[in-house]
Amino acid sequence: MKYVIGIDLGTSAVKILLVNQRGDVIQERSKSYPLFQERSGYSEQNPKDWLDQTILGLSDLIRHFDGEVEDIEGISFSGQMHGLVLLDKNYQVLRNAILWNDTRTTKECQQIYAKVGKERLLKITKNLALEGFTLPKILWVENNEPDIFQKATKFLLPKDYLRYQLTGKLHMEYSDAAGTLLFNISEKKWSKEICELLEIDMDLCPPLIESCHEVGTISLEIAQKTGLSPSTRVFAGGADNACGAIGAGILENGKTMLSIGTSGVVLTYEENAEQDFQGKVHYFNHSVPDGFYSMGVTLSAGHSLDWFKNVFAPEEDFNEFLEDIDTVPAGSNGLLFTPYISGERTPHVDANIRGSFIGMDHSHRRKHFIRAVLEGITFSLKESIEIFRKNGKEINSIISIGGGARNPIWLQMQADIFNTKIIKLKSEQGPAMGAAMIAAVGCGWFDNLQECAQTFIQVDKVYYPIQEHVEQYKKIFPLYKNVYFTTKTLSKELMKFK
Ligand SMILES: Nc1ncnc2c1ncn2[C@@H]1O[C@H](COP(=O)(O)OP(=O)(O)O)[C@@H](O)[C@H]1O
Ligand SMILES: O=C(CO)[C@@H](O)[C@H](O)COP(=O)(O)O
């Protein structure tokens, strides 16, 4: 039997899957690393932590592998998008990575609109200037840390940096380049025009490669550190949402995925770059050759739940924490939560909005607050679904992946709030599975990702909407939507005190 490894460099942890030729997950490792949020709106990680924890996870996995290491034929990667890793002339990291959920760059977004123009930016990149994307972060370092910026010779995204460290080969892969805001997504090349208008040296942009492209093998040093064979072939991989989409089988028109990780994403396949959402949702190159996808993003989905658990029950695991939420009725007895704890992206491009609980009274217990958090996150994701539906997409069935798909009550809640069928797969590790599928296709086990999906993607359970809950949520959803508009000014004023 042969094997491949899929590595997902997430925000909370690096997840590693060892998968055989039948698509069975043989071993699974997860190694976490810290997130540094030293000021409101700031979010950073140390790239060294990503590398150390990946090596730890791989060596642990190999120690418990009872086959021949040479039979692990290939590795590929999925990774959190948009994070800025700056390298000096010796390709050493210059500062902590500034992550996708860091929103310090509002001024730089205005700078981009002033120099490039919103229409032109949308035309080239198909996306708005959002604080989370990479280009505003590059400009922030230039504006605020000029000494560091002067030393920068290349920028990379998180999983591309990890791959560089494992192989010594430096590239950026297309699906992730699409999230930088420096990339012409229909021409699949760096935008000379945007670089020139913002006076960014094009040499800062790394060479580009396709997701299934083989970059070489792992380095001897990494082979020694992990126990992997030095002949292990390495394939480029993709952005975590592109890989999540592969792992969920979103490989053709009409399919929709929901991913609840640190962020929350509603994603649908696009055949070309022609669909026009006027920037209301993101639009990126897929890891499927010449495919695209569009998606709405809730900035703090799983992160809101994590935050609430860490503040009020740090000693409990998620299963204990979520144990009695099904004893609370749909709607949490009139308690609403908005998950804007680090600002929002879809449908409100607003780095200053902050979260809230509305409707608290003496009847509410801890379990009502927990259920309200889950409902608020899910309502937020429904706002992305509404955008797609208004733009003519039919969404009757959704494949749910990510950490949020581990809880059956939450999956039922998704079916009830979206009023759609929710499909749970055997492995909720969509992005790592997608990365493993890229390696499987790269190794020649299958002709293409579609063929691989037929073997690798296995359905576990389907959740159907419960009509009584659907009706209840239909009444509450407009109230939820109203909270943004009624708290917007308050949130902005409160920023002065953070
Ligand atoms: N048992 C569980 N039930 C529900 N949600 C969970 C559970 N375990 C983890 N989560 C949620 O999943 C999130 C992590 O998901 P994951 O897909 O691993 O994220 P990332 O890719 O961002 O690292 C956590 O933030 C948490 O909110
Ligand atoms: O910013 C985005 C997508 O635009 C996020 O989806 C990141 O890619 C992080 O993903 P998770 O760690 O939540 O999986």
Automatic annotation (TrEMBL):
<keyword id="KW-0418">Kinase</keyword>
<keyword id="KW-0808">Transferase</keyword>
<dbReference type="InterPro" id="IPR018483">
    <property type="entry name" value="Carb_kinase_FGGY_CS"/>
</dbReference>
<feature type="domain" description="Carbohydrate kinase FGGY C-terminal">
    <location>
        <begin position="257"/>
        <end position="442"/>
    </location>
</feature>
<feature type="binding site">
    <location>
        <begin position="81"/>
        <end position="82"/>
    </location>
    <ligand>
        <name>substrate</name>
    </ligand>
</feature>
<keyword id="KW-0119">Carbohydrate metabolism</keyword>
<feature type="active site" description="Proton acceptor">
    <location>
        <position position="240"/>
    </location>
</feature>
<dbReference type="GO" id="GO:0042732">
    <property type="term" value="P:D-xylose metabolic process"/>
</dbReference>
<feature type="domain" description="Carbohydrate kinase FGGY N-terminal">
    <location>
        <begin position="3"/>
        <end position="247"/>
    </location>
</feature>
<dbReference type="InterPro" id="IPR018484">
    <property type="entry name" value="FGGY_N"/>
</dbReference>
<dbReference type="InterPro" id="IPR000577">
    <property type="entry name" value="Carb_kinase_FGGY"/>
</dbReference>
<dbReference type="Pfam" id="PF02782">
    <property type="entry name" value="FGGY_C"/>
</dbReference>
<keyword id="KW-0547">Nucleotide-binding</keyword>
<dbReference type="InterPro" id="IPR018485">
    <property type="entry name" value="FGGY_C"/>
</dbReference>
<dbReference type="InterPro" id="IPR043129">
    <property type="entry name" value="ATPase_NBD"/>
</dbReference>
<dbReference type="InterPro" id="IPR050406">
    <property type="entry name" value="FGGY_Carb_Kinase"/>
</dbReference>
<dbReference type="GO" id="GO:0005998">
    <property type="term" value="P:xylulose catabolic process"/>
</dbReference>
<keyword id="KW-0859">Xylose metabolism</keyword>
<comment type="function">
    <text>Catalyzes the phosphorylation of D-xylulose to D-xylulose 5-phosphate.</text>
</comment>
<feature type="site" description="Important for activity">
    <location>
        <position position="8"/>
    </location>
</feature>
<protein>
    <recommendedName>
        <fullName>Xylulose kinase</fullName>
        <ecNumber>2.7.1.17</ecNumber>
    </recommendedName>
</protein>
<dbReference type="GO" id="GO:0004856">
    <property type="term" value="F:D-xylulokinase activity"/>
</dbReference>
<dbReference type="InterPro" id="IPR006000">
    <property type="entry name" value="Xylulokinase"/>
</dbReference>
<dbReference type="GO" id="GO:0005524">
    <property type="term" value="F:ATP binding"/>
</dbReference>
<dbReference type="Pfam" id="PF00370">
    <property type="entry name" value="FGGY_N"/>
</dbReference>
<comment type="similarity">
    <text>Belongs to the FGGY kinase family.</text>
</comment>
<keyword id="KW-0067">ATP-binding</keyword>
